[in-house]
UniProtKB/TrEMBL annotation, chain A:
Pfam families linked: ABC_tran (PF00005), OB_MalK (PF17912)
NCBIfam families per UniProt: PRK11650.1
Keyword ATP-binding recorded: yes
Subcellular localization(s) per the UniProt record: Cell inner membrane
Keywords: ATP-binding, Cell inner membrane, Cell membrane, Hydrolase, Membrane, Nucleotide-binding, Transport
Bilayer topology term: Peripheral membrane protein
Family (UniProt): Belongs to the ABC transporter superfamily.
SMART domains (UniProt xref): AAA
Residue intervals of the ABC transporter domain: 4-235
Species this chain originates from: Roseibium album
CDD domains: ABC_MalK_N (cd03301)
Main location per the UniProt record: membrane
EC primary class: hydrolase
Name listed for the protein in its UniProt record: Maltose/maltodextrin import ATP-binding protein MalK
UniProtKB/TrEMBL annotation, chain B:
Species lineage: Bacteria, Pseudomonadati, Pseudomonadota, Alphaproteobacteria, Hyphomicrobiales
Subcellular location per the Swiss-Prot or TrEMBL entry: Cell membrane
Name assigned to this protein: Lactose transport system permease protein LacF
Organism name: Roseibium album
Listed Gene3D superfamilies: MetI-like
InterPro entries named among the record's database cross-references: MetI-like, MetI-like_sf, UgpAE/MalFG_permease
CC terms in the record's Gene Ontology section: plasma membrane
Record bears the keyword Calcium: no
Automatic annotation (TrEMBL), chain C:
Keywords, sorted A to Z: Cell membrane, Membrane, Transmembrane, Transmembrane helix, Transport
Coiled-coil ranges per UniProt: none
BP terms from Gene Ontology: transmembrane transport
Protein known as: L-arabinose transport system permease protein AraQ
Parts of the chain that traverse the membrane: 13-35, 181-203, 209-231, 243-262, 287-309, 349-368
InterPro entries tied to this protein: MetI-like, MetI-like_sf
UniProt membrane topology term: Multi-pass membrane protein
Subcellular location: Cell membrane
Family: Belongs to the binding-protein-dependent transport system permease family.
GO CC annotation: plasma membrane
Location of the ABC transmembrane type-1 domain: 175-368
Organism: Roseibium album
Taxonomic superkingdom: Bacteria
Pfam families noted in UniProt: BPD_transp_1 (PF00528)
Amino acid sequence: MTSLSLKDVCKSYGEIEVLRDINLEIEQGELIVFVGPSGCGKSTLLRMIAGLEKITGGTLEIDDVVVNDVPPAQRGIAMVFQSYALYPHMTVYDNMAFALKLARKSKEEIDEAVKNAAETLQLTEYLDRLPKALSGGQRQRVAIGRSIVRDPKVFLFDEPLSNLDAALRVATRIEIAQLKESMPESTMVYVTHDQVEAMTLASRIVVLHGGNVEQFGAPLDLYERPANTFVAQFIGSPAMNLIEAKVTATGDTTSVKMADGGHADVPIASVDGDVGGTFKLGVRPEDLTVTESDDYLVSAHVDMVEALGETTVLYFRSQNGEPGLVAKLPGIHRIAKGTNIRLNSVPEKLHLFDGDGRSLLYR
Amino acid sequence: MFSNNPALYGLTVIIIGVGGCLGYFFLSNLFLDKVLFPASGPNAGRNINRANMIRPWLFLFPALFALVLYLAYPVFETLRLSLTDRDQGGAFVGLANYRQMMDEPKFWEAVQNNMLWLIVVPAISTAFGLLVAQLTDRIRWGNLAKSLIFMPMAISFVGASVIFKLIYDTRPEDQNQIGILNAIWLKLDGGIGSILMLQVLPSILLVGFVVIVASVAWSFVRGIIAKGEDKSVWLLPLRLLVAGGALWLIWVSISSLLGLWIGGLPYGEAQTWLTIPLWNNFFLMVVLIWIQTGFAMVILSAALRGIPEETVEAAIIDGANPFQIFFKIKVPQIMGTIVVVWTTITLTVLKVFDIVFAMTNGQWETQVLANYMYDKLFRANDWGIGSASAIVIMLLVTPILVWNVYNARKEMK
Amino acid sequence: MASIAGKKSALTWAVHISVALLVLLWLFPTIGLFVSSFRTADQISSSGWWAALFPAEQNEVYRAADPDDNRVADGDMFVVKGNIFEGDPRDIRSWGVSSRNVSAYQPGDTAEMKDGESVTLQADGSYVWRGNDKQLSGRGQRIFITATVPPEFTLGNYTTILFSGSGQDNMAKAFFNTLTVTIPATIIPIVVAAFAAYALAWMEFPGRALLIAAVVGFLVVPLQLALIPLLRLHLGIGIGKGYLGVWLAHTAFGMPLAVYLLRNYMVGLPRDIIENAKVDGATDFQIFTRIILPLSFPALASFAIFQFLWTWNDLLVAKVFLIDATGSTTVMTNQIVELLGTRGGNWEILATAAFVSIAVPLAVFFAMQRYLVRGLLAGSVK
């Protein structure tokens, strides 16, 4: 059953268009993550779903009802803000009860809902405290509790972990994953700029860039089959290497040749017209291996070596001068800065993007 | 019916006023949401949007009403009144009121005194405020000291006038002087100490003042002569204005410098301070300086606290002494705040009424515009000239008004 | 800075001393008024208030008892005995019998005058005046004494000003009038301005930026411009001169600062909190009353103090809009100005009246200084 549906949704401030024709169908029980660089419009999109920003074009449906003009409180959503937005002058209990009080629920009903949520989030002993007497993690849980209490159709999370320190962020991320598991029926939309959060939490990820949806799919889909160079470079760390490549042969397997003498036969289909075209060959740093043979992908000049023990990261340029390439080799490799080496990869792990940066897989 | 019991009357008004306000806001919102544009039915979405377009105006209405009726309308009405004559049944008389006002020496006396106030009070208050703010910044009892210097802010101009009238009080020769100023004055006998205190020290201050005024004026005038400066048209009158004002100030300073040495001081005679022309203006200004210094200090103290500690520490390592740190590191960083303090005190000075009214009522050449206006309005009953002088005050305020609005808009963007 | 190596302590001392001097200079005027309000009229006019803090030497004149009634024959002379103090003793330093030399003798000495006439004065004030029939007639001999008087203070002035004084000397009515003006004029603008400030801070509507700019402009419009048009208006619509007029005037005149101060504060509240309340289902009215108002308390307090001080200390608005010919609604500032005119030399009355009027603002000032400072910092246009 579709829980949330966006059809051609647009947002513009006067002349400035920040979101263009967003189309998303989100099923009940999914945890969707909006991810993208800052300024991509992901928070705006979330706020439009919440009703905090007007939708300037298209329709937004929650449970098959158009809600474009419905005020936030009546959309059946709950939102957890980046800053938690706890009411500083109310106790934890009152913070959680506020929405229910406004909805004129009975005292017993409110009490039960708040107590249950507090139980789930281990907040029972803090119910009488003011937010300022809580730690960052506890405040975060109150913010989540406040949304649980309302029993919404859709939970909205706006970068909820970005105000926490690194250790707490990991712990809270796991808590949110567990919370989701305990509420399989509820739909969640989660905004973050952190791809680790996106990859670990999401059932599906929406990658946004410049007001457009670049790709919408399951986390590993995005990693293995990125739709374009943007997604390819955004997902995965360090980012995917993109090397300029000339197409020499087409068919079920596409052969490419690089300017530094490297070549590859990529098992991705291409058409006859592609011959002679300049494409981008994509290879993830972790898929590169050192080779001595003449059958190589890149002939590299090593600029810098970071030996982390667990892995060795090489920053290099190709022999014809293409800079900014990275290889991540497992284990310890004693390669000196300034040496020339050759790198290769298995053909199945390679990606090909056409002149417009679109993956050949999705043509 | 309550008028004979003011306390009850006041209480009733509080209840009616506050209750009325809350009731108005609550009921008008309720009316908007439930009756005019109900958030239900087929047009719910459209209705909510419409209600949200109207709601801000519901919230704003009482305040806007008060602002328009009590501040905006009077500006125009005063302008109109200044162009009419009450005795002729409110007939339009053009600039006749202004012309008549310009012919009155009392008006020019008020303008001249106001100029003096405008320069002296903000300058000295800001300087003292800065001094105290800096001195108290690092000492342990600084907050107590600031609190005590800030205290006159709470005292009314009238109360302060009484306080200073006691200081300036004069008794006949054969009695003990109970005003501290005369008591000190009579201790001075024309000896070396008196000359140092009353002639050398003021001379140094005056010469310093002349030098500062001249250098400020020069920095303005230079722009007319120098090449490559911003020569936009509207700056020229400003520069000439500053130059003219500076010349006048220098003239006043030099003539009082001469008077200081030539006149010979009447030692041993109790003085009625508030009747000595020119000087009495300064005795009145002292009252306002006494009050406003605390204000300047509070704001500047906060600004000093806001200066990044690192810049001061860097200067110490660079070998700056405390005075260099203060003038070359701290003051430039809080220049914006100094300007704000200066303009705020300038506004207060322009409206100063109570002090002059209570202490001299404009006699002995101490008239200022605000008191001149009150005089015309309520004693001479001349609404035309009263309004004209109010407009003059408004004109003097206008540059600051424009500047403030300009800054506020810039900040909002 | 104190921890920086090699710092000169002389400079630190100079700072301490100059701050102390400045503070004393600033306090001195107020203390003068304060001390004077506890002195009697005689004390004030005979010595400066600064002398009242220490035992003072004071010259007094007494007369011996009327010789025609009290003289007793003693041989061929007559004697008058008595005590100059009559139950109000002084510590006599020196004394004399002529205004030209008032401290010619010590207590216990005998002053020899012309033709065998003499006066003996003891330290306790008892005297013996001896002379012939002609000398001991007419009026009693004048005795000048120089006495040390301990500091002496009285609450009498306050009793006069607050309770027993009559007419202009009694401030009790003016005190309550001032209170009657001040309290509604402080509370009502807060409510009105708070709603407007919320709209200007958190509601979207066309013309908002323009309105904010207008408020900044109104901040500096001189009160003077409003006087005649509004007085005419008040007289025209029948409000006339009175409390209602002065409340309305103060409410409106305080409005720009109130709106400006409160808007600046409210706009600084976190956006998330307000949006969260919207998601929680609060209407604008509920957001205002349940979230914004409680959170804006510091700004409300700041403005309340400003408005209180300003209305309490105001003279001009009260004179124009409140005080009518009967003067029954006079406020303290006005009454003091009138006292300055009619009782210019009666410092015991003036000082006490002034101190009564500044006592309340001073109490408010010291109790709520924190909010006042905060308001000042927020209120000065940046």
